[in-house]
Specification:
The complex is a heterodimer. By secondary structure, chain A is mainly beta. Chain A is built from no helices and 11 strands. Chain A is globular. The N and C termini of chain A lie far apart (36 Å). The mean pLDDT of chain A is 97. In chain B, 0% of the residues lie in helices and 52% in strands. Chain B is built from no helices and 11 strands. The radius of gyration of chain B is 14 Å and the shape is globular. The termini of chain B are far apart. The chains are: A mainly beta, B mainly beta. The A-B interface holds A 1, 31-34, 36, 38, 42-46, 49-51, 53, 55, 87, 89, 91, 94-101 and B 35, 44-47, 50, 59, 61-63, 95, 97, 100, 102-113.
Chain lengths: 107, 120
């Protein structure tokens, strides 16, 4: 299985901050890397697909980059509604696997 | 709009089976595969498997092989996921999600989730 490792596991930040979450795959996964946002008790929602493509309706303050095994999710200016847990996911191979999540909390 | 509606919460005894449903609407049912993902309390997301509603071909995560069965009913645009031999570790929120393929593959949208509790 392809292991996905996110860092940090948790992050405390303030409204207006710029933050970056990283995700490392245990082998190359091409562009089969997605980012999801999940709020407590709710289903995940895709933010970024195929490394850097912004899902329709997602604010432009979210961006993704990377290649091969190393990827990042950046939020340019945190808004109150962005405090949530974020997961990366590889869909290069089966089983599809997720990172362990990054919980973004208000400082 | 595209929507996945999941069945209601379940409480089961250890050793029992549970069957969850996921009803699709707003798109051509047979054109998109469906995934199942679960989330134990306070934990991350765990992929269980995928089914092609057209023909019923499946691919299960090795961890669930032998215990999970996914089926589809094209007459009602509904996907079913049966998990047998339930144990306390299967207590989780279970999601279905549509598979989208473009210049990659991602899951969108997701159902609202079904809580399964395994307890004696």
């Amino acid at each position: 299985d392809i292991q996905m490792t996110q860092s940090p596991s948790s992050l405390s930040a303030s409204v207006g901050d710029r933050i970056t979450i990283t995700c490392r795959a245990s082998q190359t996964i091409g562009t089969f890397l997605n980012w999801y946002q999940q709020k407590p008790g709710k289903a995940p929602k895709v933010l970024i697909y195929a490394v850097s493509n912004l899902q329709s309706g997602v604010p432009s303050r979210f961006s993704g980059s990377g290649s091969a095994t190393d990827f990042t999710l950046t939020i340019s200016s945190l808004q109150p509604e962005d405090f949530a847990t974020y997961y990366c996911q590889q869909t290069y191979d089966s089983p599809r696997t997720f990172g362990q999540g990054t919980k973004l909390e208000i400082k | 709009q595209v929507h996945l509606a999941q069945s209601g919460a379940e409480v089961k005894n250890p050793g029992a089976s549970v069957e969850l449903s996921c009803k699709a609407s707003g798109y051509t049912f047979t054109n998109y595969h469906i995934h199942w993902v679960r989330q134990a309390p306070g934990q991350g997301l765990e992929w269980m498997g995928i089914i092609n509603p057209s023909g019923g071909r499946t691919d299960y995560a090795p961890k669930f092989q032998g215990r999970v069965t996914m089926t589809s009913d094209t007459s009602t645009s509904t996907i079913y996921m049966k998990l047998s031999g339930l144990r306390s570790e299967d207590t989780a929120l279970y999601f279905c999600a549509r598979d989208v393929v473009g210049n990659g593959e991602w899951f969108d949208p997701w159902g609202q989730g079904t809580q399964v509790t395994v307890s004696s």
